[in-house]
Amino acid sequence: MKQEPCGLVACRIRAVAAWLLLAVVLAVVAGQTAWAAPRPGPPSERIVSLSPLLTENIYLLGAGDSLVGNTVYCNRPAAARGKVKIGSVQELSIEKIVALRPQLILASNLTPPPQVEKLQRLGYQVEIFRQPATFADICTHLLRLGQVLGKKTQAEAIVAQARQKVEAVRQAVAGQPRPKVFLQVGANPLFSSVNSSFTNDYIELSGGINVAGDLRSGAVKMEQVMALNPDLIIIAVMGTEHGVGAEEKRRWREYPAIEAVRAGRVHVLDPDLVCSPSPLTFADTLVGIARLIHPQVVISP
Questions:
Q1: Which helix (H) or strand (E) holds 120?
Q2: Residue 238 above 50 pLDDT?
Q3: For the chain, give me the number of helices (H) and strands (E)?
């Protein structure tokens, strides 16, 4: 048998050894990539919220400790009031936001686009959420936030609980007469709930008829409300905590020709709960409104 020169054999051995060494190194690197590479931290360690609804939902999902800044209108829950204020929903201080060193900025479609674009140009992750128009939107809003914050399981559980309570209300009022309801959400000018707002769902799911629902704009005149002649008036206007709601209720008493006024069915509700709800606060508020619309029906909390 012909034998290869010893030098050639040695070269082949060294080549095989080199390939084996390379294979081992690649395997080790692959193992480090799969098992030892540090996982990127969640983007929710330092959050700035530019929306009261987003702020409330952050706490609802158990991520309140990660919130470092929010707007002057973020007052629910109470802990949100102690966070650094970066301005209002429409007028933000970019400098204050930058000083907070956020890893994640949560904005709504009410946040001025030029300011969102500026924050993005500065390299910040900005997630934009549309203001909900229905109860279904409110649930979708929380579910998406749960995904962004790594709280998907918590969000799904909260939404399931809220949907169950809403369905219980819907079933409780099924088959009942449907009173005409005027839901006032603004005072100057007089402003009502319309079909394109989730506030309309309060009335519809409670077994009422939104007398102003078909209006193109929520702005109405007192003469229009008198013509619509609602059976129930619900006042949920900003500034109620400072007496605006009580003043509006006194103003309605000057129009006894309206059935709701004549029957003493003019009520004031907390505008924070009515106009900026999470899924759970929507469900709880719905229970209260359903009881006002159908006082004769037993509606479980």
A1: helix 113-121
A2: yes
A3: 12, 10
